[in-house]
Design brief:
Layout (H helix, E strand, L loop, with lengths): L1 E12 L1 H4 L5 H10 L7 E10 L2 E5 L15 H5 L1 E4 L6 H7 L7 E5 L5 H4 L10 E2 L2 H6 L2 H6 L29 E3 L6 E5 L8 E5 L4 E6 L5 H6 L9 H17 L2 E5 L5 H7 L18
Parallel strand pairs: 3-5, 5-6, 10-11
Antiparallel strand pairs: 1-2, 1-4, 2-3, 7-8, 8-9, 9-10
The protein binds zinc ion (ZN).
Length: 284
């Protein structure tokens, strides 16, 4: 089984989104008040070449994201994209010799724009999203939260997941993504209330983390971002991932971590520390 890291361009967010500052509502307002930007961060999608067919996890950004016209304050003031057409999911799959019909399943960790903008490249393929995430992204409430259903393509009709699979360490339930059960989804609420992650099980577990944290360092110190609605829920998820990593070697791969691709290629496992300290954030 081979796993490919597909970098669909870069994104910049506010520092106070990457590293949450304060608590409660203040933490979620702070990114809008912050004038400092992160470096350009990669946006990864993943292709798992599995004997049952290719599994695509997240679909990345699209070149149109850089020119998006939106009334939403987050899109207007708090995020910037740099994506070329050749960096989108479709061209990258083709460069690997993977045609659309080779894709057995598309799994979306959550429906934020830099995870769902590539969906039209895999239109018509069986697609799964957490039912709660799909529900949250619908209608006016979804628009107010910044979801952009227009990106997903007219044929977007994902299925929910059945969380009846075997427990995986501290995750009480899983949703199998293959008949053999070696690739599963786990529920990792925090960044969004119905966020999921994908685990390729083996002697070393590969954890495709979506936006559970922006970096591995944030996982290790339990640092919640500036957009998670429920800080305690996000911390609980980070704790579960650390527990899973303590049980069995685990390679942790967040979507926007600049080190994710190199950690995948060298199978560089995460080592949870005994006594976490918080990341220091200095902001004006
Ligand atoms: Zn997100």
């Amino acid at each position: 089984m081979q796993i490919h890291a597909l970098r669909t361009g870069f994104v910049q967010i506010k520092r106070a989104q990457q590293i949450g500052v304060g608590h409660g509502l203040a933490r979620r307002v702070r990114p809008f008040l912050d004038s400092t930007w992160t470096d350009w961060l990669p946006t990864y999608a993943w292709a798992i070449e599995h004997e049952e067919g290719v599994i695509v996890v997240d679909t990345g950004s699209a070149s149109g994201d850089a020119h998006l016209r939106s009334w939403h304050p987050y899109h207007r003031f708090d995020v910037r994209f740099r994506v070329e057409a050749r960096e989108e999911l479709g061209p990258q799959l083709r460069a690997l010799g993977i045609g659309t019909s080779d894709v057995a399943k598309v799994v979306v960790t959550h429906l934020h724009m830099d995870h769902g903008a590539g969906l039209p490249h895999v239109a018509g393929r069986p697609t799964v999203v957490h039912a709660g995430e799909l529900q949250a992204a619908q209608g006016l409430s979804g628009r107010l939260q910044g979801y952009l259903p227009g990106q997903w393509g007219t044929g977007f009709d994902p299925q929910g997941l059945s969380w009846q699979g075997q427990p995986l360490g501290p995750f009480e339930s899983t949703a199998p993504l293959t008949r053999s059960g070696d690739v599963v989804a786990v529920q990792t609420p925090g960044h969004t209330p119905h966020h999921l992650s994908v685990v390729i099980k083996g002697d070393v577990n590969i954890f495709l983390a979506g936006d559970t944290s922006y970096t591995q360092d944030a996982l290790l110190v339990g640092q919640v971002d500036g957009v998670s609605p429920d800080e305690g829920q996000a911390q609980n998820t980070l704790q579960r991932i650390r527990l899973l990593a303590a049980e069995r070697p685990l390679v942790y791969l967040p979507t926007h971590d600049p080190e994710s691709a190199s950690r995948l290629s060298t199978l560089d496992v995460v080592t949870p520390k005994a006594s976490p300290v918080r990341l220091a954030a200095t902001l004006p």
